[in-house]
Batch of 3 targets.
Target 1
Amino acid sequence: MKSAPLVAVIQFPGSNCEYETARAVRSSGMDSCIYRWNQWRELRDSQPDAYVLPGGFSFQDRIRAGAVAAKERIMDLVFSEAADGKPVLGICNGAQILVESGMVPGWEKGRIETALAANHISGRSGYLSGWIFLHTTTRAQQICPWLGMTGNGVIPLPIAHAEGRFVFSEENHYRAESSAALKYCDEKGIESSDYPINPNGSFLNLAGVMNEYGNVLAMMPHPERAFWMWQLPPWIPGEWGDRRDESLSSGSHAAAKGPGSVFFMSLADYFRGER
């Protein structure tokens, strides 16, 4: 019997979402193991099938969020594995690390081609914590292992960041759309650059960016914080709000999977060859 895929969760000093991320992986039918930033040899020898860089404040966000972690030796290994096609997911601070390492959008190897700048929209700035809605681009559903089950609907997820605004240099604006994986929208799926639909002023309403092959995804919202239905607030409207209410009335609320689960379940399906 073939063993379950192994997903490595990389823990940096200041990471604070590694355990719930590892649990989300295991609850999706895969194996997970947490590796510290200085365990690159152990990581190399275990030969994981996929990698997740979880949220937090690696190295206290010194210099820029994700900048120090991106220079750690363990990221050289992740970079190499991504180049070989293995799936890599960066969540919030993990997304910032992927951006600082040049892995997304990855048009030119190792070059930083986008930035996650400080939140700024309609005079609002600083740290934001709350719930947003997003949807997946058609191309991302087709090529990204993390997004195959997201469908055409609206997905509610929590955000918690101060530097989550995707920006591109003017000469790369025309290329940004090809890297778009997740976009902020309202509960009906309509995009807007206005707050609070776009919570941070991100270019093209981007909530997530992928590399050209789709195997590397950097996203600012936290799917691991919405893996279970009981994590959804009661005011969430639409399909997921209805599912939440149904799980409450049926008594399955504690075990029912929430919207964040589709990202991890997508990867499990990818490894089963169901995409």
Note: The radius of gyration is 17 Å.
Target 2
Amino acid sequence: MTRKISKGIISWPEEDRPRERLLSRGPHALTDAELIAILVRVGFQGTNAVELGRSLLKQFGSLRAMAAAPLSAMLNFKGLKSAKVAQLAAAMEIARRVSLPDGKKCIQIKGTKQAGEYVKERLRSLPDEHFRVLYLNRQNRLLDDVLIAQGVVDSVKPPVRSIITHALRTNASSLIASHNHPSGAIEPSESDIILTRDLISATRPLGMKILDHIIVGEETTYSFADSGLLDELELESFSPYPAKKNLKRESA
């Protein structure tokens, strides 16, 4: 139904208002823009909350991309002030935590296939490149999952120092690096290979291990561990420490 931009939701028929429709028909009956409208509650001059929701989706591309965006991107969006951004960010984080069985710290990464599925769920279909690191303990249980860097394609340069600093802070024994290729291609670039080599060199003296580097495309993933490339890079770096057990390799 087309409405004038200046017509506030309060003036709509009650059965058309997002909040009332959610209560009468359930949240599944609402569009993404209507769900956003319930969270932000009001729009701004000349734009109601549903239209603000549509504008956000147009800007970011999808709810998934909105959830992955930095807070600064939403704070700079017209019509969003800190209170609305906080409400949206809290809702996105709740949704992310609900998707983790009994909290992320209970997750045990048992193999490369499971690791690939985990990061794929968080990185696919994003409009720009995101680099995430999973920090694991000695039993390969997830200690933390951190967005390290994001930006336009080929511009993301994850800071190795920051990755290592967080590993020390969480007392991680091993790490899994991951990033997406918005183009959908999953072949590692030269910079991907160099970064993986640098991470191996930086973690070995600390007794940590890089278990995998996973590249996420639209529907498929590339595993440095499964391809054998991780082993090749490890051989290039001498270590006085005995190698820890690798992740179980699995075919896709």
Note: The CA atoms of residues 24 and 223 lie 46 Å apart.
Target 3
Amino acid sequence: MSRLNPRQQEAVNYVGGPMLVLAGAGSGKTSVITRKIAYLVQQCGIQARHIVAMTFTNKAAREMRERVGTLLKGAEARGLTVSTFHNLGMNIIRKEYARLGYKPGFSIFDDGDIKALLTDIMQKEYSGDDGADEIKNYIDSWKNDLILPDEALANARNPKEQTAAIVYLHYQRTLKAYNAVDFNDLILLPVKLFQEHADILEKWQNRIRYLLVDEYQDTNASQYLLVKLLVGMRNQFTVVGDDDQSIYAWRGARPENLMLLKEDYPSLKVVMLEQNYRSTSRILKCANILIANNPHVFEKQLWSDMGHGDEIRVIRTRNEDAECERVALEILTEHLRTQRPYSDFAILYRGNYQAKLMELKLQHHQIPYRLSGGTSFFARQEVKDLMSYFRLLVNPDDDNAFLRVINVPRREIGSTTLEKLGNYANERKISMYAAADEIGLGEHLDARFTERLAR
């Protein structure tokens, strides 16, 4: 740990209670988290199976896991959990599904599944699916704030919210009948479970003796409460965050959770990481000037010992086409002048809609490139449909695959029919595929729907 600076070392070594590490961009926060995990195991005697580190993306979790793997050898790392919030929630539900009223092998709906279900509900209840995206936003917001359908309906402030709350009620009831959850349920359900069943909460608190959380400024209300419940009275945790890097308020993130920590944990130790290892002083000076305009929870000033650095150039162009042309020419000119490989260049843009024109300019100038963050082949709708058919062939009990392909091609089987089928399957403790083939289903469904299911 000799490569850590004094502030980083302080953050790694402190285990006397709750701690907040305020980590500016490029300040080595991942090193602090991974070194702290190693310190907890090797110096504090905490077994890895009692340590959980959480972040927000699978990529970040994978990187953290790999870096910890270079510090802990063999049995030292056995049982360590490094995952996203939602993966931890999924694992909790998988182990406690019965107490939540689910069958084993529950399905997780993605955005496409959710949109299809909401559209179907709205077409049946309101003879159209106008506003399905807006209603999804309402439901996302309610779930992030731990608001269940009945409470949402009771507190609806206008007709639009009332409609959204009624759809939310139908939506949640249908999900349960499908033995399915959505992304937000992966946090909501464990929190509600812990609040209502003290014995289960105690079991998980004993399982998790030390908790580390990355990107804490991006937590929403439900994630904050999940952390608070898991640490309990032990208060053994380290969270890493930076209120100046919070960009997800539109999806429920609350940077004020950093300040709330000081209220909930009066003994909270705060360590600031202000030395930047990524940029030169000139870049950081610009960044600090811009950041100074933010509403601040904590004051900090990034600095670097990497030298002053080159000037920052701002280029104005007459339109978007000229902008992309200029970017391509700048790269081409610099490549020819310095023989610097194209892999040394990067282009950042705000939205995917801007990529097409940039690609055309790069292709025109024969500049090789790789697009990062595009749609994965396996994320395409037709591929997911085909894979679901294969999954159902291999495992007829896969309800998620069944629900995805039941209307591909379209068989005019709506959410009401599938809800009844799901309830029947739950009563019989069988899969929806098996239930669709049972004679007894005819007592619950009209003959024309059983015929459609038989197709």
Note: The chain has a mean pLDDT of 90.
